[in-house]
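Step 1: inspect the first sequence and its tokens.
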Amino acid sequence: MGSAKLRNIRNYLLRQARYLDVARWNFHFEDGAAAAVLKALKAYQNDDGGFGRGLEPDSQNPHSSPLTTWSATRILREVGFPDLAWQMIRGILGYLEATPDFRGGKWTAATASNNDHPHAPWWHWSADTDLFQYNPSAELAGFVLRFAEPASVVYGRAESLVRTLMPEVMSPAYALGTHELSNLLMLFEDLTVASRSDLILPGFDSFLHEKVKASILQDPAAYRPDEYVTSPMFFIMSADSPYYAENKAICDFFAGYLEDTVKPEGYWALNWTWGEEPVPENVQRDWHGVQIVNHMLYLQGMKPER
């Protein structure tokens, strides 16, 4: 990427993005400290240990929800779960154990209080819908099994959840969603780190490889800046990824595509709306900061000289 384009991206981020995303940028690209990311992330954590307050920009609910708490765990993962994060992690575990948004053996993707605040239509709560199946429960379960005490209630809950989901998601009849598949990749990683391979069914690794390959839009000609598609970024952020080799061509294409589609102002336009409504300007601005960091991490991960 040319220096002028990179300068525009950085300047836009510094002018417009949330402090959290500036801290993330500094951590990854300018020798910033993980402590600064944690300090910024803490502003979104509630007294119950869960996260809300628009950390997930498409849900402006200030109250804690499993989905927004999952978003926080992704940022913790991004900075390597440093020791400094232990108090925050302990709060998350407490929230996941106590929240009433655990029903039917899963943490719900949406919570009732979402409906009282601006949100994308897919985060609208209804008592009789389960649109996201194991999103974000699969990944939250892996997080719990990685960090919680085995004797805790929440650990047992996560263990039971994984035992149930493994045969279910691997069934040929199961309609696996894109975000749900991303959750499963992180679950697999956490079960491996936690030495809980006993919970991994035979063939699960091959299953993930097959699903990642099938889920990514493999035709470069089908990519459009205004269309929401399953890009490699959902699953692969580096050429070191175990899923990179069999998706190398589209991963390499997508790196060039990102460079070509950044706006002159220094951000990437959103490729989704809130149903019939445009995404509110403040939400767009927050997403621009999130996407800048995510896209630049992808580009960094695909650099041959990294």
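Step 2: inspect the second sequence and its tokens, then contrast the two.
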Amino acid sequence: MELAIENASFIFDKDKATLSIEGALRLSGMQKYKEEGFFDFLKDAVKNCETTLNLDLTKLQYLNSSGVTAFSRFILEIKKEAMNPIKVTGSSEISWQKKTLPNFPKLWNQIILDFQ
């Protein structure tokens, strides 16, 4: 399952239970993220994953504030219905990830954070 949004690609590998996001997300506003299929794609990945989903962001070079809000809203929505935890894998080399990703487990205690 794949999705392309502007300069970013989303690839879900069901066999590896991994959703990889690469590139840069710079959409202007939450509505754009919704219109481009961001929420639907992430929710479908969670629904199609029978175990812990690995959300691999190690190659996501840039995420604007609307994107951070979109991920936060996604976490708040899925915590109501998700049965399995989500492992968020980030890169310790990318500054926005070091600053932002530690906030995700604060939104849902089933977010497992891992830096590479």
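Step 3: confirm your contrast with the notes below.
The longest helix spans residues 65-78. The longest strand covers residues 53-63.
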